[in-house]
Amino acid sequence: MKVPFLDLKSLHARIQEELDHAIREVTGHTAFIGGPALARFERDLAEFMETAHAKGVSSCTAGLAMALRSLGLAPDDEVITTVHTAIPTAESIRLAGAKLVFADIDEATYQIDPEQVASLVTRKTRAILPVHLYGLAAPIDSILEIAERHGLTVIEDVAQAQGARFQGRRLGTFGKAGCLSFFPSKNLGGFGDGGAVVTDDDELHRFVSMYSNHGRLEKFTHEFEGANERLDGLQAAVLGVKLRYLDEWNERRRQVAGWYEEELGSIEELGLPRPIEGSEPVWHLYVVRAPDRDSLQRYLQERHIGCGLHYPISLNLQPAYAHLGQGEGSFKVAEKVASEVLSLPMDPFLTREQVGAVGDVLRDYFRIEHGAR
Ligand SMILES: Cc1ncc(COP(=O)(O)O)c(C=O)c1O
User: Fold this and answer.
1) What ligand 1 atom has the least distance to the C-alpha of 62?
2) What is the pLDDT of residues 225-256, one digit of tens each?
3) Measured in angstroms, how far is the CA atom of residue 85 from the centroid of ligand 1?
4) Is 147 a pocket residue for ligand 1 (Cβ < 6 Å)?
5) 219 burial class (0-12, 13-18, 19+ CB within 10 angstroms)?
6) pLDDT per residue over 170-215, tens digit each?
């Protein structure tokens, strides 16, 4: 049985009429920049996230950089983030003009390790940038405690965790701002690039609204030089339709994750993801760990089971960060995890049978092909 990694085509086909209608409305008004679809989406997203404000921006990378830039960081100001994430998280710190400081992760959860973070705080630290990786919560309560103790700002990277909760509250609402990505494959994905910054802070919202639109709130007055980092009207229209289904689709993802637990729980060689207590994950990815990951990946691919790597190289070992001088062995946990992670198919509409098929192939791999281990 073929099991796709993510089947966006089928997902969109389920709501095709609504999407077509929303797109036609924008093209009918020719409201491609700003316009009613964007205003409506921003209002609906703020309501969904339970925040005072939501500002659509061109990407999560841009959103993170803007949220950090709003803090007025100096070149030697430091921002701490996890070394096990997608590169945009780290890029945003340099884009905001500050110094990037990597922290290692917790082996059980794959998330940033608060003890590491605490040990990295210096007189120059201004902010912490936790990532709710894979749609699971980072230990946001410990991070907030550290931030409070040292007077630091927390900006959350919620690119992969739209709709997830911790202790009943949406992730992205614990820090001063939360930044979402609408990259097409995300739980809430557009038909292209997009992102949003959610916040209860009026000033931060005002800054992002202005910066993303050439430093202006009014047409002819530019209070400072900003950039063109707006969310398109067409993207907002598509996202507005999909937002209505996000909680339902996330619930389905939780069901799929439950099926994986049932299927894979007894495979000793496989490490399963462990959400932190008190969290309600949204399973953007279902990431397992295996010591001989590359051979397992090949085995799955040969049997038409879609899989991915998030992420195979710890950021400290990327050529882009060679200048930091943190070579092999600098982040022992993250480097080990990067060599072992494998993302299994995750789609809200995977069936019990498809998850069972993935389980069968994995069991075959460990029992028949590698029976002695
Ligand atoms: C954890 C994380 N942060 C940030 C981003 C950046 O998002 P975007 O592609 O919208 O800039 C991504 C998306 O790849 C991500 O996965």
Assistant:
1) 11
2) 999 999 999 999 999 999 999 999 999 999 99
3) 9
4) no
5) exposed
6) 999 999 999 999 999 999 999 999 999 999 999 999 999 999 999 9
